[in-house]
Design goal:
InterPro entries: Homeodomain-like_sf, HTH-type_TetR-like_transc_reg, HTH_TetR. With 230 residues, this protein is an all-alpha fold. The protein is built from twelve helices and no strands.
C-alpha cells in the first residue's frame, strides 16, 4: 500500500498564515510553523528551504485570493462592487486578510529568497497594480487629473475599507455589520462617476464609463468633496 503523507505544503502554508495573523509576521519561524501544524520540524524543511519560502507561498496564496475577488471589478471601473467584493472576501477569509494586513503591503521575505520565488511575487504585485491602473483609466474622465483619480480611487478602494476593517481584523473580531453602509455613504459622496450613473445597475454604469459622450465637461467639485473628509 502507498503511504500517504500526513502533512503537505498547504498544511504548513496555512500554519504560517495563522501564526502571522495572530502573533505577527516576526513570530513566524520554522519551529513555530511546525508547532502550529503539529508536525516535526524536519517535515517543514523537507518541503520548504527556508522561512521566507513558506511566507512567500503564504503571501502569494492570500494576495492572489484578494486579487481574484476585486480585480475584475477594478478593471471594469465598477468601484462599488469592488468594495463589496473586498468586504465579502475579508469576511470569508479573515485569517488571510489579517495576514496581508500584518504584511503591510509587501511580501515578508529576506534577501536569501531564491530568484524564482521573487519573480512570482513580482508577477503577483504587477497583476494587482495593472488592475488598479485600469480602474484609474476607466474613471479618469470624471476627475480633473490622473493624479486626482489615483488618489480618490486609492482612498475609495483601499484606504477607507482598510481603515474600517483594521480594528476588527487586528483584534480577531467580526467585521461590523454596518461597514458596508458606512463605506457606501463615502463612496457615493466622493465618486462622480457613480453619481452620474445614479443607478446600481452595473451594466448601465459600465456603459456610462465607456461612452465618451457621457463624460462631464468639468469635475471641479471632486477635489473639494475629497478634501472635505480630512
Amino acid at each position: 500500500m502507498v503511504r500517504l503523507a500526513k502533512f503537505n505544503d498547504d498544511t504548513f502554508v496555512q500554519a504560517a498564515i495563522e501564526v502571522a495573523a495572530t502573533c505577527g509576521v516576526g513570530a513566524v519561524s520554522m519551529a513555530a510553523i511546525a508547532s502550529k501544524a503539529g508536525a516535526p520540524m524536519g517535515s517543514v524543511y523537507h518541503r520548504f528551504g527556508s522561512r521566507s519560502e513558506v511566507l512567500a507561498r503564504a503571501w502569494l496564496q492570500a494576495q492572489a485570493g484578494l486579487r481574484q475577488a476585486v480585480a475584475a471589478h477594478w478593471q471594469a471601473g465598477r468601484t462599488w462592487p469592488a468594495v463589496q467584493a473586498l468586504l465579502a472576501w475579508c469576511r470569508q477569509h479573515p485569517l488571510h486578510a489579517r495576514f496581508l494586513m500584518q504584511c503591510e503591503g509587501h511580501p515578508p521575505i529576506d534577501e536569501a529568497l531564491a530568484g524564482p520565488w521573487r519573480q512570482r511575487l513580482d508577477d503577483e504585485q504587477l497583476a494587482m497594480e495593472q488592475a488598479f491602473e485600469q480602474a484609474v483609466r476607466r474613471c479618469a474622465p470624471w476627475c480633473t487629473s490622473t493624479d486626482t483619480t489615483t488618489t480618490l480611487l486609492r482612498f475609495v478602494l483601499l484606504d477607507a475599507p482598510l481603515a474600517m476593517l483594521r480594528p476588527a481584523l487586528s483584534q480577531g473580531r467580526e467585521i461590523p455589520a454596518n461597514a458596508e453602509d458606512l463605506l457606501r455613504t463615502s463612496h457615493e459622496a466622493l465618486c462622480p462617476w457613480w453619481q452620474q450613473a445614479a443607478v446600481n445597475d452595473h451594466d448601465v454604469q459600465e456603459r456610462l464609463l465607456a461612452d465618451p459622450a457621457m463624460r462631464p465637461v468639468t469635475s471641479s467639485a471632486v477635489p473639494a468633496r475629497a478634501s472635505s473628509t480630512h
